[in-house]
Amino acid sequence: MANPLFSKYSQGENRVTASILAVFERISFSLVERILQILCEEPNQALLEVKNQIKPKGFNAIPDGAIQASFAYWIETKVFPNSVGIDQIKRHLEALEQHPNASQKKLIVLTPDDKTPEPIKQIDSPLVVWASFNSLANAIAEVLKTDESWLTSDFPLASEQERFLLRELVQMFLAEGLLNSGKSDAVLIVPAREAIKDYKNYSVYLCQPNRSFQKVEYIGFYHNGVIDRRIAKVLAPPIKSVILDEEGIKEGINAEELSALDASIRASIQTSLELLVEKTRNDQHWAYKDTVQVFLLSSIDAKETIPLNQDIRNDLRNAAGRPYAFTQGQRYVPLTSLLKHPLTTSELLNSA
C-alpha cells in the first residue's frame, strides 16, 4: 500500500521525509533517478541497469535481457539550519558501510542550510552527500523543464500527474519554511514580459493570487532575454489576494499582511493600486476586477533600488545547444552574485 501523500507525522523531520518518499513512490523510477543524480552531482551514475544479451559469470546461459539494481540511498532530514549532529551521521555511515546488498551507497543529508554543515565537512566521506532543500527544489525544477531538450536527450519526460506531485512537494517545502531558510540574500527573479511594465509604471509586481514564494527582500525582472539591471526592493509583505476594483483596494489596504506597516507605506500602496485600477479600465494586461497578488516595490529611480552596471544577458543552452529561458516561473539567485555585476546568466550562476 502506498504511503499517505503528505504525512501527518507531528515531528517536522519525519513529516517532511515521509512526504518526499511518498512522492518518489508515485513517480517513475527514471525521474527519481534523475533527481538523485542531480543532488549527488553524479549525472552518469545509473541506479537501474537495463541490458540486452548479458552473460552471467560462471554460466553459459545467455538471457535475452536483464533489469538490475543494487543500491542503497539513505536520507537524513533536518528542518532547522545548523542542526546536523556529527555522532548521528557517523552512526548512519557505519551502518551504511555494512549494508550487505548494495554496491552503490549514499547517505544524503538534506537540510535548509545555505552551505555545507561543518559536521559533513569533518566526516569528509564520499558516501555522505549534503544537499539543501533549495538544491532539491532546483533538481525538481530541472526535471520539469519544458524546453526542447527532451527531444534530443535520454532524460525522462514527466507526465502531468508527476508534474503535479512534484510541484506540490515544492509547495510543501515553501509552506514549511525550508527553502532559503538558511540564507538571507536571495533575490526572486520573475518572468516579466508584461510585469516589467507594471513595475515601471506603478512600482508593483502582480501575479496570480495566493502564489507561494520564498520570503525575499528584492525582486528582479527577466524579460526580452535579459535580467533587468534594476533590482527592486520589496517594501511590504505581499497582499496575497486583492480584487482590482475600488472596493477590493479598500479591503487590500486593510489586509492582515499590512496591518503592522507604517501609515506612509500603506498610503503609498493605496496610491499605486488606485492608479492601477484606473488603468485596468483601459489597456492594461490585467483586467478590471481581476484578482491578483501584489508586491509593493521601490521605484526604478528610488535609492532602495539596486542598479547593476548592465542588464544580464541570458546565454543558457540545453544539451542540444538551443537557448532556453532563464526562468519560466520563478527562480532565486544570491544578491551577492548579482552585485558582482555579471555580464551573462551563466556567469551569474557560476558565481553563486
Q: What can you tell me about this protein's structure?
A:
- The chain is an alpha+beta fold and 352 residues long.
- It folds into two domains: 12-175, no CATH class; 186-350, no CATH class.
- It is built from eleven helices and 15 strands.
- The model is unreliable at 147-152 (pLDDT under 50).
The overall number of domains is: 2
Number of helices: 11
Largest sheet: 7 strands, mixed
Q: How far apart are the first and last residues' alpha carbons, in Å?
A: 42 Å
Give the low-confidence spans: 147-152
Strands, total number: 15
- Please state the average pLDDT score: 81
Strand fraction equals 15-25%
Radius of gyration: 24 Å
- Helices and strands, in N-to-C order? HHEEEHEHEHHEHEEEEEHHEEEEHH
Form type: elongated
Structural class: alpha+beta
Brief characterization of the structure:
With 352 residues, the protein is an alpha+beta fold. The protein has 11 helices and 15 strands.
Task: From the structure above, extract its key features.
352 residues, alpha+beta, 7-stranded mixed sheet
What's the topology here?
Blueprint: H1 12-26, H2 29-40, E1 49-52, E2 65-68, E3 71-77, H3 86-97, E4 104-111, H4 118-123, E5 128-132, H5 133-143, H6 160-175, E6 186-191, H7 195-202, E7 204-207, E8 218-223, E9 226-227, E10 230-233, E11 239-243, H8 246-253, H9 263-280, E12 291-296, E13 306-307, E14 312-313, E15 331-334, H10 335-338, H11 345-350
Helix pairs in contact: 1-6, 2-5, 8-9
